[in-house]
Design a protein that fits this description.
Elements lengths: L12 E2 L6 E2 L7 E3 L15 E3 L2 E3 L6 E3 L5 H4 L12 H15 L7 E5 L8 H4 L4 E5 L3 H9 L4 E2 L5 H11 L2 E7 L8 H11 E12 L1 H7 L11 E2 L2 H9 L3 E9 L5 E8 L8 H12 L4 H27 L4 E4 L3 H10 L9 E3 L16 E3 L1 H5 L4 E4 L5 H7 L1 H5 L3 E4 L5 E2 L1
Parallel strand pairs: 7-8, 7-10, 8-9, 10-11, 15-16, 15-18, 16-17, 18-19
Antiparallel strand pairs: 1-2, 3-4, 5-6, 6-12, 11-14, 13-14, 19-20
Helix pairs in contact: 5-6
Bound molecules: ligand DWN, S-adenosyl-L-homocysteine (SAH) and zinc ion.
Protein backbone atom coordinates (compact mmCIF):
# COMPACT_ATOMS: atom_id res chain seq x y z
CA UNK A 1 0.00 0.00 0.00
CA UNK A 2 2.71 2.48 0.95
CA UNK A 3 5.43 2.93 -1.62
CA UNK A 4 7.89 4.11 1.03
CA UNK A 5 10.70 4.80 0.53
CA UNK A 6 10.90 7.11 -2.45
CA UNK A 7 14.65 7.44 -2.18
CA UNK A 8 16.58 7.45 -5.46
CA UNK A 9 20.05 7.70 -3.92
CA UNK A 10 21.66 9.29 -0.87
CA UNK A 11 20.46 12.84 -1.60
CA UNK A 12 17.79 12.53 -4.31
CA UNK A 13 14.18 11.47 -3.82
CA UNK A 14 11.00 11.18 -5.87
CA UNK A 15 8.00 13.50 -5.51
CA UNK A 16 5.01 11.64 -4.03
CA UNK A 17 2.68 13.54 -6.40
CA UNK A 18 4.38 13.92 -9.79
CA UNK A 19 7.45 11.67 -9.47
CA UNK A 20 9.93 14.44 -10.32
CA UNK A 21 13.35 14.23 -8.72
CA UNK A 22 13.62 16.13 -5.44
CA UNK A 23 16.41 17.39 -3.26
CA UNK A 24 15.61 18.41 0.35
CA UNK A 25 16.31 22.10 1.08
CA UNK A 26 17.07 21.53 4.77
CA UNK A 27 17.10 18.96 7.53
CA UNK A 28 15.49 19.15 10.97
CA UNK A 29 17.80 16.38 12.10
CA UNK A 30 16.89 13.11 13.79
CA UNK A 31 13.21 13.09 14.72
CA UNK A 32 11.14 10.56 16.67
CA UNK A 33 7.51 9.61 16.01
CA UNK A 34 5.63 12.74 17.15
CA UNK A 35 2.86 10.90 18.99
CA UNK A 36 4.95 8.08 20.41
CA UNK A 37 4.75 9.07 24.08
CA UNK A 38 6.78 6.45 25.86
CA UNK A 39 7.88 5.02 29.19
CA UNK A 40 11.44 5.06 30.53
CA UNK A 41 12.03 1.41 29.65
CA UNK A 42 11.23 2.15 25.99
CA UNK A 43 13.88 4.89 25.62
CA UNK A 44 16.59 2.60 24.26
CA UNK A 45 14.43 1.23 21.42
CA UNK A 46 12.98 4.55 20.31
CA UNK A 47 12.63 4.96 16.53
CA UNK A 48 14.18 8.00 14.81
CA UNK A 49 14.34 9.17 11.19
CA UNK A 50 16.06 12.06 9.41
CA UNK A 51 13.37 14.69 8.80
CA UNK A 52 14.02 16.53 5.56
CA UNK A 53 11.50 18.65 3.65
CA UNK A 54 11.66 19.34 -0.08
CA UNK A 55 9.68 21.54 -2.44
CA UNK A 56 8.74 20.15 -5.87
CA UNK A 57 9.10 22.77 -8.60
CA UNK A 58 7.01 20.70 -10.99
CA UNK A 59 3.78 20.26 -8.97
CA UNK A 60 4.47 22.85 -6.21
CA UNK A 61 4.07 20.32 -3.41
CA UNK A 62 5.89 20.81 -0.11
CA UNK A 63 6.68 17.38 1.33
CA UNK A 64 8.81 15.22 3.57
CA UNK A 65 11.05 12.95 1.53
CA UNK A 66 10.71 10.14 4.04
CA UNK A 67 8.81 9.23 7.19
CA UNK A 68 8.01 6.16 9.28
CA UNK A 69 5.59 3.55 7.91
CA UNK A 70 1.90 4.51 8.44
CA UNK A 71 1.40 1.55 10.82
CA UNK A 72 4.20 2.87 13.07
CA UNK A 73 2.28 6.12 13.53
CA UNK A 74 -1.38 5.12 13.30
CA UNK A 75 -2.20 2.11 15.43
CA UNK A 76 -3.96 1.02 18.63
CA UNK A 77 -1.80 3.43 20.66
CA UNK A 78 -2.41 6.63 18.69
CA UNK A 79 -2.19 9.45 21.23
CA UNK A 80 -4.26 12.21 19.61
CA UNK A 81 -7.97 12.27 20.45
CA UNK A 82 -9.77 15.03 18.49
CA UNK A 83 -12.36 15.50 21.24
CA UNK A 84 -9.79 17.06 23.62
CA UNK A 85 -10.70 20.51 22.30
CA UNK A 86 -14.20 21.84 22.85
CA UNK A 87 -13.51 24.60 20.37
CA UNK A 88 -12.74 22.01 17.66
CA UNK A 89 -16.05 20.32 18.48
CA UNK A 90 -17.85 23.54 17.57
CA UNK A 91 -15.68 24.02 14.52
CA UNK A 92 -16.63 20.59 13.14
CA UNK A 93 -20.31 21.21 13.84
CA UNK A 94 -20.11 24.27 11.55
CA UNK A 95 -18.06 22.31 9.00
CA UNK A 96 -20.79 19.63 8.90
CA UNK A 97 -23.46 22.27 8.21
CA UNK A 98 -21.58 23.38 5.13
CA UNK A 99 -21.31 19.77 3.93
CA UNK A 100 -25.06 19.29 4.54
CA UNK A 101 -25.75 22.14 2.11
CA UNK A 102 -24.06 20.17 -0.69
CA UNK A 103 -25.83 16.84 -0.16
CA UNK A 104 -28.09 15.23 -2.77
CA UNK A 105 -30.96 12.77 -2.28
CA UNK A 106 -30.40 9.68 -0.15
CA UNK A 107 -27.03 11.05 0.93
CA UNK A 108 -24.00 9.06 2.00
CA UNK A 109 -21.04 10.78 3.68
CA UNK A 110 -17.58 9.21 3.99
CA UNK A 111 -14.97 10.71 6.28
CA UNK A 112 -11.36 9.52 6.46
CA UNK A 113 -9.32 10.10 9.61
CA UNK A 114 -12.60 10.25 11.51
CA UNK A 115 -10.75 9.69 14.81
CA UNK A 116 -13.14 9.70 17.81
CA UNK A 117 -16.10 10.79 15.68
CA UNK A 118 -15.89 14.52 16.39
CA UNK A 119 -17.14 15.38 12.87
CA UNK A 120 -19.33 12.40 11.98
CA UNK A 121 -21.36 12.67 15.19
CA UNK A 122 -23.04 15.65 13.48
CA UNK A 123 -24.24 13.38 10.65
CA UNK A 124 -25.03 10.38 12.85
CA UNK A 125 -27.25 12.64 15.02
CA UNK A 126 -29.28 13.49 11.93
CA UNK A 127 -29.53 9.85 10.87
CA UNK A 128 -27.56 10.51 7.71
CA UNK A 129 -25.90 7.45 6.21
CA UNK A 130 -22.19 7.77 6.97
CA UNK A 131 -18.95 5.84 7.25
CA UNK A 132 -15.78 6.78 9.09
CA UNK A 133 -12.47 5.28 7.97
CA UNK A 134 -9.99 5.30 10.82
CA UNK A 135 -6.91 3.03 11.15
CA UNK A 136 -6.06 3.92 14.77
CA UNK A 137 -8.25 1.42 16.59
CA UNK A 138 -8.21 3.09 20.03
CA UNK A 139 -9.65 6.37 18.75
CA UNK A 140 -11.96 4.54 16.31
CA UNK A 141 -13.44 2.56 19.22
CA UNK A 142 -14.46 5.82 20.93
CA UNK A 143 -16.45 6.70 17.81
CA UNK A 144 -17.98 3.23 17.53
CA UNK A 145 -19.09 3.40 21.16
CA UNK A 146 -20.93 6.61 20.31
CA UNK A 147 -22.81 4.73 17.57
CA UNK A 148 -20.81 6.19 14.68
CA UNK A 149 -20.37 3.75 11.82
CA UNK A 150 -16.61 3.28 11.53
CA UNK A 151 -14.29 0.87 9.77
CA UNK A 152 -10.83 0.38 11.28
CA UNK A 153 -8.76 0.70 8.13
CA UNK A 154 -6.39 2.85 6.10
CA UNK A 155 -8.23 4.47 3.22
CA UNK A 156 -6.82 3.82 -0.26
CA UNK A 157 -8.11 2.83 -3.69
CA UNK A 158 -8.73 -0.82 -2.71
CA UNK A 159 -10.81 0.18 0.29
CA UNK A 160 -12.75 2.69 -1.83
CA UNK A 161 -13.78 -0.15 -4.15
CA UNK A 162 -14.95 -2.22 -1.16
CA UNK A 163 -16.95 0.72 0.21
CA UNK A 164 -18.70 1.20 -3.14
CA UNK A 165 -19.62 -2.51 -3.20
CA UNK A 166 -20.98 -2.41 0.35
CA UNK A 167 -22.65 1.01 0.49
CA UNK A 168 -22.76 2.50 -3.02
CA UNK A 169 -21.08 5.77 -4.05
CA UNK A 170 -20.73 8.75 -1.74
CA UNK A 171 -22.33 12.19 -1.96
CA UNK A 172 -19.49 13.74 -0.01
CA UNK A 173 -15.95 12.68 0.81
CA UNK A 174 -14.70 14.70 3.77
CA UNK A 175 -11.47 14.91 5.75
CA UNK A 176 -9.78 17.19 8.26
CA UNK A 177 -6.08 17.11 8.98
CA UNK A 178 -5.57 13.76 7.32
CA UNK A 179 -5.01 14.17 3.56
CA UNK A 180 -1.63 15.73 4.39
CA UNK A 181 -0.77 12.61 6.45
CA UNK A 182 -0.77 10.15 3.57
CA UNK A 183 2.32 9.67 1.36
CA UNK A 184 0.45 7.35 -1.04
CA UNK A 185 -1.80 10.32 -1.81
CA UNK A 186 -2.33 9.27 -5.44
CA UNK A 187 -4.07 6.11 -4.24
CA UNK A 188 -6.31 8.34 -2.09
CA UNK A 189 -7.37 10.49 -5.04
CA UNK A 190 -7.83 7.37 -7.18
CA UNK A 191 -10.05 6.06 -4.38
CA UNK A 192 -12.05 9.29 -4.37
CA UNK A 193 -12.49 8.97 -8.14
CA UNK A 194 -14.07 5.53 -7.62
CA UNK A 195 -16.08 6.48 -4.55
CA UNK A 196 -17.60 9.81 -5.48
CA UNK A 197 -21.02 10.11 -7.15
CA UNK A 198 -20.93 12.08 -10.45
CA UNK A 199 -22.24 15.20 -8.67
CA UNK A 200 -20.44 14.54 -5.37
CA UNK A 201 -18.11 16.89 -3.48
CA UNK A 202 -14.79 16.50 -1.72
CA UNK A 203 -14.27 18.85 1.22
CA UNK A 204 -11.09 18.72 3.26
CA UNK A 205 -9.01 21.07 5.38
CA UNK A 206 -5.38 20.94 6.35
CA UNK A 207 -2.64 23.17 7.82
CA UNK A 208 -1.86 25.69 5.08
CA UNK A 209 1.60 26.07 3.58
CA UNK A 210 1.08 29.84 3.17
CA UNK A 211 0.62 30.24 6.95
CA UNK A 212 3.61 28.06 7.79
CA UNK A 213 5.85 30.11 5.51
CA UNK A 214 4.40 33.43 6.63
CA UNK A 215 4.67 32.71 10.39
CA UNK A 216 7.60 30.24 10.33
CA UNK A 217 5.44 27.68 12.13
CA UNK A 218 7.92 24.92 11.34
CA UNK A 219 6.38 22.86 14.14
CA UNK A 220 3.67 21.85 11.64
CA UNK A 221 6.38 19.70 10.11
CA UNK A 222 6.58 16.28 11.79
CA UNK A 223 6.41 12.63 10.72
CA UNK A 224 2.62 12.55 10.26
CA UNK A 225 2.59 15.62 8.03
CA UNK A 226 3.98 14.26 4.76
CA UNK A 227 2.60 17.31 2.94
CA UNK A 228 1.85 20.95 3.60
CA UNK A 229 -0.62 21.75 0.86
CA UNK A 230 -1.33 24.97 -1.00
CA UNK A 231 -4.06 25.81 -3.52
CA UNK A 232 -1.51 25.22 -6.30
CA UNK A 233 -0.47 21.78 -5.09
CA UNK A 234 -4.06 20.64 -4.49
CA UNK A 235 -5.10 21.92 -7.92
CA UNK A 236 -2.27 19.92 -9.52
CA UNK A 237 -3.01 16.76 -7.52
CA UNK A 238 -6.74 16.63 -8.30
CA UNK A 239 -6.26 18.01 -11.83
CA UNK A 240 -4.51 14.73 -12.68
CA UNK A 241 -7.87 13.01 -12.10
CA UNK A 242 -10.19 15.44 -13.88
CA UNK A 243 -11.31 17.14 -10.70
CA UNK A 244 -11.12 20.86 -9.91
CA UNK A 245 -11.13 23.29 -7.00
CA UNK A 246 -14.50 24.96 -6.63
CA UNK A 247 -13.88 26.79 -3.36
CA UNK A 248 -11.10 27.77 -0.98
CA UNK A 249 -11.75 29.03 2.56
CA UNK A 250 -8.98 29.98 4.98
CA UNK A 251 -9.55 28.66 8.53
CA UNK A 252 -8.07 29.86 11.82
CA UNK A 253 -7.76 26.30 13.20
CA UNK A 254 -4.42 24.57 13.85
CA UNK A 255 -2.50 27.81 13.49
CA UNK A 256 -3.93 28.57 10.03
CA UNK A 257 -5.54 26.02 7.71
CA UNK A 258 -7.22 25.96 4.30
CA UNK A 259 -10.50 24.25 3.43
CA UNK A 260 -10.50 22.90 -0.13
CA UNK A 261 -13.76 22.03 -1.91
CA UNK A 262 -13.40 19.96 -5.07
CA UNK A 263 -15.77 18.45 -7.62
CA UNK A 264 -15.55 16.60 -10.90
CA UNK A 265 -14.62 19.06 -13.65
CA UNK A 266 -17.50 21.15 -14.96
CA UNK A 267 -20.13 19.92 -12.48
CA UNK A 268 -20.21 22.93 -10.12
CA UNK A 269 -19.69 26.70 -10.20
CA UNK A 270 -16.19 27.85 -9.26
CA UNK A 271 -16.09 30.46 -6.52
CA UNK A 272 -14.10 33.65 -7.26
CA UNK A 273 -11.87 33.12 -4.22
CA UNK A 274 -10.16 30.21 -6.00
CA UNK A 275 -8.38 32.57 -8.38
CA UNK A 276 -7.79 35.21 -5.71
CA UNK A 277 -5.99 32.71 -3.48
CA UNK A 278 -4.04 31.16 -6.35
CA UNK A 279 -2.84 34.65 -7.21
CA UNK A 280 -1.96 35.49 -3.60
CA UNK A 281 0.22 32.37 -3.48
CA UNK A 282 2.22 33.69 -6.45
CA UNK A 283 2.62 37.01 -4.64
CA UNK A 284 3.72 35.25 -1.43
CA UNK A 285 6.39 33.43 -3.47
CA UNK A 286 4.99 30.02 -2.48
CA UNK A 287 6.10 28.55 -5.80
CA UNK A 288 9.56 30.08 -5.70
CA UNK A 289 12.40 27.84 -4.44
CA UNK A 290 14.12 30.91 -2.89
CA UNK A 291 11.23 31.16 -0.40
CA UNK A 292 12.31 27.84 1.12
CA UNK A 293 15.92 28.91 1.56
CA UNK A 294 14.63 31.93 3.47
CA UNK A 295 12.30 29.64 5.46
CA UNK A 296 15.30 27.50 6.45
CA UNK A 297 17.07 30.62 7.68
CA UNK A 298 13.95 31.73 9.60
CA UNK A 299 13.69 28.31 11.31
CA UNK A 300 17.31 28.51 12.40
CA UNK A 301 16.86 32.06 13.72
CA UNK A 302 13.73 31.10 15.66
CA UNK A 303 15.46 28.10 17.18
CA UNK A 304 18.36 30.26 18.45
CA UNK A 305 15.98 32.88 19.87
CA UNK A 306 13.80 30.38 21.70
CA UNK A 307 16.70 28.44 23.20
CA UNK A 308 18.43 31.70 24.27
CA UNK A 309 15.26 32.90 25.98
CA UNK A 310 14.77 29.63 27.88
CA UNK A 311 18.44 29.54 28.91
CA UNK A 312 18.34 33.13 30.21
CA UNK A 313 15.24 32.39 32.29
CA UNK A 314 16.83 29.25 33.73
CA UNK A 315 20.04 31.12 34.58
CA UNK A 316 17.94 33.42 36.75
CA UNK A 317 16.84 30.36 38.70
CA UNK A 318 13.24 30.47 37.44
CA UNK A 319 11.19 27.39 36.56
CA UNK A 320 9.69 26.61 33.15
CA UNK A 321 7.04 24.05 32.20
CA UNK A 322 5.38 23.25 28.90
CA UNK A 323 1.61 23.35 28.35
CA UNK A 324 -0.07 20.86 25.94
CA UNK A 325 2.08 18.00 24.68
CA UNK A 326 1.12 18.55 21.06
CA UNK A 327 2.61 16.72 18.08
CA UNK A 328 4.02 20.10 17.12
CA UNK A 329 5.95 20.26 20.41
CA UNK A 330 7.86 17.12 19.38
CA UNK A 331 9.38 19.09 16.50
CA UNK A 332 10.13 22.12 18.69
CA UNK A 333 11.77 20.16 21.52
CA UNK A 334 13.80 17.87 19.25
CA UNK A 335 14.90 20.50 16.72
CA UNK A 336 15.81 22.96 19.51
CA UNK A 337 17.32 20.27 21.76
CA UNK A 338 14.99 21.15 24.65
CA UNK A 339 15.27 18.60 27.46
CA UNK A 340 14.58 18.68 31.20
CA UNK A 341 17.59 21.02 31.47
CA UNK A 342 15.22 23.73 30.26
CA UNK A 343 11.64 22.47 30.74
CA UNK A 344 10.67 20.46 33.85
CA UNK A 345 7.56 18.81 32.47
CA UNK A 346 4.68 19.32 30.05
CA UNK A 347 1.10 19.50 31.38
CA UNK A 348 -1.51 17.83 29.16
CA UNK A 349 -5.15 16.77 29.34
CA UNK A 350 -4.86 13.46 27.41
CA UNK A 351 -4.88 10.52 29.87
CA UNK A 352 -2.69 8.20 27.74
CA UNK A 353 0.07 10.82 27.48
CA UNK A 354 0.13 11.48 31.24
CA UNK A 355 2.84 9.64 33.19
CA UNK A 356 4.77 9.06 29.96
CA UNK A 357 7.65 11.02 28.43
CA UNK A 358 7.66 13.15 25.31
CA UNK A 359 9.15 11.60 22.16
CA UNK A 360 12.87 12.12 21.63
CA UNK A 361 13.78 14.58 24.39
CA UNK A 362 11.99 12.67 27.16
CA UNK A 363 10.35 15.45 29.14
CA UNK A 364 7.79 14.01 31.62
CA UNK A 365 4.10 14.56 30.81
CA UNK A 366 1.94 15.48 33.82
CA UNK A 367 -1.86 15.67 34.15
CA UNK A 368 -3.11 19.21 33.45
CA UNK A 369 -4.88 19.29 36.85
CA UNK A 370 -1.42 19.33 38.50
CA UNK A 371 -0.50 22.60 36.78
CA UNK A 372 -2.66 24.49 39.29
CA UNK A 373 -0.99 22.76 42.22
CA UNK A 374 2.50 23.60 41.08
CA UNK A 375 2.55 26.74 38.95
CA UNK A 376 5.95 27.34 37.31
CA UNK A 377 7.31 30.86 36.81
CA UNK A 378 6.92 30.45 33.04
CA UNK A 379 4.91 28.08 30.82
CA UNK A 380 5.67 27.49 27.15
CA UNK A 381 2.38 27.32 25.26
CA UNK A 382 2.93 24.37 22.91
CA UNK A 383 -0.81 24.36 22.17
CA UNK A 384 -0.87 27.95 20.83
CA UNK A 385 -3.64 26.98 18.39
CA UNK A 386 -5.85 26.43 21.46
CA UNK A 387 -4.72 29.64 23.21
CA UNK A 388 -8.26 31.02 23.71
CA UNK A 389 -9.48 27.79 25.30
CA UNK A 390 -6.33 27.34 27.42
CA UNK A 391 -6.05 30.97 28.60
CA UNK A 392 -9.72 30.86 29.66
CA UNK A 393 -9.08 27.67 31.68
CA UNK A 394 -5.86 28.89 33.25
CA UNK A 395 -6.64 32.50 34.21
CA UNK A 396 -5.37 31.93 37.75
CA UNK A 397 -1.86 31.23 36.46
CA UNK A 398 -1.55 34.83 35.23
CA UNK A 399 -3.30 36.19 38.34
CA UNK A 400 -0.72 34.46 40.50
CA UNK A 401 2.18 36.03 38.60
CA UNK A 402 2.86 33.28 36.03
CA UNK A 403 3.91 34.17 32.48
CA UNK A 404 3.20 32.45 29.17
CA UNK A 405 5.94 32.03 26.61
CA UNK A 406 4.49 31.92 23.09
CA UNK A 407 6.48 31.49 19.89
CA UNK A 408 3.79 32.05 17.24
CA UNK A 409 3.60 34.40 15.36
CA UNK A 410 6.77 35.53 17.18
CA UNK A 411 8.59 34.70 20.39
CA UNK A 412 6.99 36.67 23.18
CA UNK A 413 6.39 36.62 26.94
CA UNK A 414 2.79 37.46 27.92
O1 LIG B 1 -2.89 17.00 12.30
C1 LIG B 1 -3.08 16.64 13.44
C2 LIG B 1 -3.91 17.47 14.34
C3 LIG B 1 -5.33 17.54 13.90
O2 LIG B 1 -3.92 17.00 15.65
C4 LIG B 1 -2.55 15.36 13.95
N1 LIG B 1 -1.45 14.95 13.15
C5 LIG B 1 -2.18 15.37 15.40
C6 LIG B 1 -2.75 16.49 16.20
O3 LIG B 1 -1.80 17.53 16.30
P1 LIG B 1 -1.43 18.17 17.72
O4 LIG B 1 -1.06 17.09 18.65
O5 LIG B 1 -0.43 19.25 17.48
O6 LIG B 1 -2.88 18.72 18.10
P2 LIG B 1 -3.41 19.85 19.06
O7 LIG B 1 -4.87 19.84 18.95
O8 LIG B 1 -2.75 21.15 18.77
O9 LIG B 1 -2.94 19.43 20.52
C7 LIG B 1 -3.60 18.52 21.26
C8 LIG B 1 -2.92 18.34 22.62
O10 LIG B 1 -3.13 19.49 23.42
C9 LIG B 1 -3.52 17.16 23.32
O11 LIG B 1 -2.49 16.36 23.88
C10 LIG B 1 -4.35 17.78 24.43
C11 LIG B 1 -3.65 19.09 24.68
N2 LIG B 1 -4.56 20.09 25.23
C12 LIG B 1 -4.50 20.39 26.59
O12 LIG B 1 -3.66 19.85 27.32
N3 LIG B 1 -5.39 21.29 27.09
C13 LIG B 1 -5.47 20.67 24.42
C14 LIG B 1 -6.38 21.59 24.92
C15 LIG B 1 -7.41 22.24 24.05
C16 LIG B 1 -6.32 21.90 26.33
O13 LIG B 1 -7.11 22.73 26.84
N1 LIG C 1 -9.91 14.44 11.61
C1 LIG C 1 -9.45 14.53 12.98
C2 LIG C 1 -8.19 13.68 13.25
C3 LIG C 1 -6.93 14.18 12.60
S1 LIG C 1 -5.50 13.25 13.12
C4 LIG C 1 -9.22 15.97 13.37
O1 LIG C 1 -9.08 16.84 12.50
O2 LIG C 1 -9.14 16.23 14.57
C5 LIG C 1 -5.24 12.25 11.68
C6 LIG C 1 -6.07 10.97 11.69
O3 LIG C 1 -5.97 10.36 10.41
C7 LIG C 1 -5.63 9.95 12.71
O4 LIG C 1 -6.72 9.60 13.51
C8 LIG C 1 -5.11 8.79 11.85
O5 LIG C 1 -5.29 7.54 12.46
C9 LIG C 1 -5.91 8.96 10.57
N2 LIG C 1 -5.32 8.39 9.33
C10 LIG C 1 -4.02 8.30 8.98
N3 LIG C 1 -3.89 7.71 7.76
C11 LIG C 1 -5.14 7.43 7.33
C12 LIG C 1 -5.67 6.80 6.15
N4 LIG C 1 -4.90 6.34 5.16
N5 LIG C 1 -7.01 6.66 6.05
C13 LIG C 1 -7.83 7.10 7.04
N6 LIG C 1 -7.39 7.70 8.16
C14 LIG C 1 -6.07 7.86 8.31
ZN1 LIG D 1 5.99 16.99 -7.70
Amino acid sequence: MNENNSKINASLFQCWVCESTLEPFMTFGRMPIANNFLSEKEFNDEYFFEMEPAFCNQCNTFQLVRQPEPQQMFNEKYAFFSGTSQFMGKHFEKFSKQVLSYLDEDPFVVEIGSNDGIMLSNFANKNIKHLGVEPSSNVAMVAKEKGINTTINFFDKDLAQKIVKGYGQASAFIAANVMCHIPYIKSIVEGIEVLLRPNGVVVFEEPYLGEVIDKTTYDQIYDEHTFLFSAHSVKYLFGQYDMELINLEPQATHGGSMRYTIARKGTRTINKTVNTILQSEEELGLNDPKTYLQFKQNCENDRIQLVNLLEQIRKKGKSISGYAATSKSTTITNYCGITTDLIDCIYDSTPIKQGQFNPGTHIPIRPHQEFKENYPDYAVLFGYNHSKEIFAKEQDFIEQGGKWIVYVPQIEII
